[in-house]
């Protein structure tokens, strides 16, 4: 199983980024997929998840209306569109296989830094 995230970077407050996660080594469309993040000095925080065919999406309250999770099963790829970014969104973002609560199978992460 391999999950490879990309798309992070440094952005000003109010800016946007789109994260991607390419999955391999398992049947991608049989799993819920999630994004979690870890801010400096803090634990992992679940951000969002999406059902196998994308019909169900859920978000942590702090990102509702700003972030959108999506997936392309033909490309084995998970996305996170992040708009109206805030300094509080600064964290390392990880793609996780599984729904909310799953953390074991995840990638190396991509760093998102939002400057004020």
Write a structural description.
With 116 residues, the protein is mostly beta strands. A hairpin with a 5-residue loop joins strand 4 and strand 5 (44-50). 0% of the residues lie in helices and 50% in strands. The protein has strands at 2-6, 9-12, 17-24, 33-38, 44-50, 57-59, 67-72, 77-82, 91-97, 110-115.
The fraction of residues in strands falls at over 45%
Order of SSEs, N→C? Answer: EEEEEEEEEE
By DSSP (H or I, 4+ residues per run), the number of helices equals 0
How widely separated are the two ends? 37 Å
Unreliable stretches:
none
- Strands, count: 10
Can you summarize the main beta sheet? 6 strands, mixed
Rounded Rg = 13 Å
- Determine the mean pLDDT: 97
The helix fraction, in percent, is under 10%
Based on Cα principal axes, name the global outline: globular
Q: What order do the strands of the largest sheet run in, or round the barrel if closed?
A: 2-10-9-4-5-6
Question: Structural class per helix/strand content?
Answer: mainly beta
Write out key terms for the chains shown.
116 residues, six-stranded mixed β-sheet, mainly beta, four-stranded antiparallel β-sheet
What is the element layout, followed by pairings?
Elements: E1 2-6, E2 9-12, E3 17-24, E4 33-38, E5 44-50, E6 57-59, E7 67-72, E8 77-82, E9 91-97, E10 110-115
Parallel strand pairs: 2-10
Antiparallel strand pairs: 1-3, 3-8, 4-5, 4-9, 5-6, 7-8, 9-10
Brief overview, please?
The chain is mainly beta and 116 residues long.
């Amino acid at each position: 199983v391999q999950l490879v995230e990309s798309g992070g970077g440094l952005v000003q407050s109010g800016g946007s980024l789109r994260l991607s996660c390419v999955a391999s080594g398992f049947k991608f469309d049989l799993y819920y997929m999630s994004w979690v993040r870890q801010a400096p000095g803090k634990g992992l925080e679940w951000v969002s998840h999406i059902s196998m065919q994308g019909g169900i999406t859920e978000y942590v309250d702090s990102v509702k209306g700003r972030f959108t999770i999506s997936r392309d099963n033909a490309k084995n790829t998970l996305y996170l569109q992040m708009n109206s970014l805030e300094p509080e969104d600064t964290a390392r973002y990880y793609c996780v296989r599984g729904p909310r609560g799953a953390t074991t199978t995840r990638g190396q992460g991509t760093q998102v830094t939002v400057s004020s």
